[in-house]
Write a structure and sequence with these properties.
Layout: H1 5-11, H2 25-33, H3 47-56, E1 64-66, E2 73-75, E3 93-99, H4 105-114, E4 117-120, E5 123-126, E6 129-133, H5 138-151, E7 155-160, H6 163-173, E8 179-182, H7 188-198, E9 202-205, H8 209-221, E10 227-230, H9 236-252, E11 263-265, H10 271-283, E12 288-291, H11 296-309, E13 323-326, E14 335-339, H12 342-355, E15 359-364, H13 371-376, H14 382-391, E16 402-405, H15 413-420, E17 423-426, H16 434-441
Helix pairs in contact: 1-2, 4-5, 5-6, 10-11, 12-16, 14-15
Bound molecules: iron/sulfur cluster (SF4).
Iron/sulfur cluster binds at residues 12-13, 15-20, 22, 25, 28, 42, 44.
Length: 442
Amino acid sequence: MALSGLDIYKLLPKTNCRACGFPTCLAFAMQLAKKAVNLDKCPYVSAEAKRAIEASSQPPIKIVTIGTGENKLEIGNETVLFRHEEKFFNPCGIGFIIDDNEGVNIRRKLEKINRLKFERVGQKLEVNLICLRQQGNPRQFTEALNLVLKDTPLALVLMVKDIQTLQDALQISKERRPLIYPVANQDYLSIAKIAKYFKFPLVAYAYNLDELSNLVQELDRAGVADIVLDTGRKSVADKIWDLTQIRRLALKKNYRSLGYPVLAVAENDDPYTEAQEAATYITKYAGIVLLKGIDSWEALSLLTLRQNIYSDPQKPLQVEPKVYPIGQVTSDSPVLVTTNFSLTYYTVLGEVEASKVPSYIVSVDTEGMSVLTAWAAEKFTPESISNCLNKFKISEMVSHNTLIIPGYVAVMSGELEEQSGWKVAVGPKEAAGIPSFLKNLQ
Ligand code: SF4
């Protein structure tokens, strides 16, 4: 929790010696609170005060990076319990568990996982991680790992049962900066030395929060900087309790030893149960969710949920307001007008493409509101539409003057015709009606 200027002042020497360049300790404290100066400017601050002030400037939930380059995953650094308070910043990583004894299935699965890429409302949705889990001996694990390294660029979680396997695996995968996940009762301090040496993130695993907190403190003392927490497989209710308590303690009580992102495993033989469980953990408050199912429907539903949870609730997803030519447009192509709310625009776009009638879509700046909301808020009005038509010079792109408006705002037809000089045709209320509407125009 960040300290206020007064809190910091209480920790300073209060001698007003001016060595920091400020007339008083209080003035210096106020600048420190604003992060406008460095604490090093005061030569007399005690080591204890320095520790307290520096600790207060750290984020309450540490940011942890797994992987490198384009496929790196950053998790943590969240600042709120509820997304309406601000927003959630670093989207939960979604990964797939592959066992090292799956033989030829490993390659097949990797091919399928590599294809789990989608586009929704103009954004790319992609999965993030492969978690390779040890079932056999070190050799079997490294053979499987070589296959994974060759066949996918995704970031890695190495779920290993013994130190020998871990050392062998890190030698061949160190370029990927994997997340080390020791399973079974292992010598955590030896593993901590390895994580510290490579500067790799490490999963701290303990079944209850007290044990987890103690383990994190040990790892911290051992020099492990990047930690991901896990409290193991539990009922969904118990797991949600853990996830919520960890987030609450980190944010509200400044509980440093739980101030790290959390990993949750949602593995289940029933894909529907697994998807529900994973969705619950994405919502509250996992930094990584691992599952087994690699079907497109499961990945797409989780990626869509994640996209919604990690969007800014105060800033709707928007497309650029402009004229979008769809298909091989000509001067005879129909002109449809809609708002710049991404979901609305892409829904209209999908239906126009499905109609196979080349058309212009004019996206009016409604600050990301949908049609009826924007109309009610007076952002989608005859005036704003007319201004948009003039601004983008649509009349120079087509040889007709017919404008198709959404059926829900038919009420503005007369005024829009008067203000814009365009003839207004009222389109369907629902986007699903657009293909037949456009085909009937021809
Ligand atoms: Fe206070 Fe330190 Fe600045 Fe002196 S140098 S005025 S003790 S904050």
